[in-house]
Design goal:
heterodimer, A: mainly alpha, 7 helices, globular, B: mainly alpha, flat
Chain lengths: ~190, ~60
């Protein structure tokens, strides 16, 4: 299912280029959101942590953001699941290109609308409803991207946030060291860590 | 590989910071170009691959 030639889940140079490009894009989009509205779009832990604070302080703008951003991210993940994960379960070829095409369309739309002034001045912060739309669209793209890469890699690779990767890196370093001592014949290559 | 992912993530954030400071919304053209190229590559790869036979679908 995942091992045929068209899969982007295997450790091949062309696939590694795709994963690295997506990681690059994850960092890039998060910074765009931060620079334009002063908010993150893929750091959902932040919103989950701050939600109670905004409920107590009755800050409706920030409270709405704590709901909008995660909702948009999850919607992107759901959309991706229909195109990739659901098809993998039914043993059909996943539509990676539709997922990536949708991301391109969203980015083109944001770029076009941004240049026409639909989102106000870049860097003005979170002021109006159109800023919510801009951030939600970026969160949707991040969710779509992250879910696509997560599905095809068997939850090994995440490209929009680093907590999971950093955890896996720590475990991988110790695993590599342990295998080198106890079972030198079965040590994985460093590229897999 | 994970070191690579972290490095590329940070690199993306760094380049994005520079691009946003200089170009504003135009900086979105960088991920647009990279995603469009990947879309094209994956589309061509999908089209070039073997088509499933009707009996495989059942």
């Amino acid at each position: 299912m995942l091992s045929h030639d068209r899969s982007i889940a295997t450790f091949r140079p062309s696939n590694i280029v795709i994963w690295m490009t997506m990681a690059f894009q994850g960092g890039y989009l998060n910074m765009v959101a931060l620079m334009s509205c002063g908010k993150f779009v893929s750091h959902l832990t932040r919103y989950a942590t701050l939600l109670p604070k905004f409920v107590v302080s009755e800050n409706t703008v920030e409270f709405s953001l704590c709901l909008f951003i995660p909702a948009a991210f999850v919607t992107g993940a759901i959309f991706s699941a229909f195109l990739v994960d659901s098809r993998l379960i039914r043993e059909r070829s996943p539509k990676y290109w539709v997922a990536f095409g949708s991301m391109s369309l969203c980015l083109a739309g944001l770029l076009g609308l941004g240049l026409r002034g639909a989102f106000g001045t870049f860097g003005e912060g979170l002021i109006e409803a159109h800023d919510f739309l801009f951030l939600s669209a970026l969160a949707f793209i991040c969710g779509l991207q992250n879910a696509s890469i997560t599905s095809i890699s068997g939850s090994i690779i995440r490209t929009t946030h680093l907590s999971g990767i950093a955890t896996d890196l720590g475990i991988g370093i110790v695993r590599l060291w342990t295998l080198k001592i106890s079972r030198p014949d079965s040590v994985p290559s460093f590229i897999q860590i | 590989m994970r070191v690579g992912l972290i490095t590329f993530f940070v690199m993306g954030a760094f380049i994005s910071y520079l691009a946003c400071e200089r170009w504003g919304y135009t900086s979105l053209s960088v991920p647009l170009i990279s995603t469009s190229l990947l879309f094209l590559v994956l589309y061509l790869r999908d089209m070039a691959g073997p088509k499933p036979r009707p009996e495989d679908r059942n």
